[in-house]
Description:
Blueprint: H1 2-24, E1 29-30, E2 42-45, E3 49-53, E4 59-63, H2 72-98, H3 108-144, E5 155-156, H4 158-238
Antiparallel strand pairs: 1-2, 1-5, 2-3, 3-4
Helix pairs in contact: 1-2, 1-3, 1-4, 2-3, 3-4
Amino acid sequence: MTGWQILAFLSGLAGLCATIAATVSNEWRATSRASSVITATWVLQGLWYNCAGNAIGALHCRPHLTIFNLEGYIQACRGLMIAAICLGLFGSVLALVGMKCTKIGGSDKNKARIACFAGVDFILCGICSLSACSLYAHRITTEFFDPMFMSQKYELGAALFIGWAGGILCILGGSVFCFSVADSFSRSHSQANYIYRGAASHSHITAYTRGQTKPVKEGHAADNSSSSRVQHFDKNAYV
């Protein structure tokens, strides 16, 4: 399971990096870039900044001025992505402590529990990232296909796909950690049963050998008594 745990840690770490990249990205949604050459041809919007660019290469960004004027889904996505990053960081630290290839964490049983907690953190990190990206994508698609929506319509940005990929990687890494812990517990249980059965068979064999030695000793005592009687008989016969 050491190799699987290393792969799970790398998968979770890659998912955490993708989650961070998606969080700080400004391309959660984007307009079409085929409108004009002179004026601003596209608009990029993220969780923290709104950017406008043109075909010349100029890109101007401004942050969201106040948190109270933001729409509810943007605030929810912010909270989910921040929670995903925090869970991923805790999961990475716990994974380093609980992996079998490291020298910290105590006994194998304690390391298995720590690795299980790391797997749960990675899974929750992936769920938060997937939930935030899915919520944002649902809002974009709803506005895009709504015929009554007359404002500017946007398309899915690259940050959403990065966030989805990061969430899937985190869930895969956390699942491998949890399955490795279950496998280690099953192996320890089977070893305990083997030791118990071996001890029981050893005690049974010892009791059997003890029971067999008693008749042998009694037989030797009977032989010694009969030989002594023969010796006494021979002595009297010569007298």
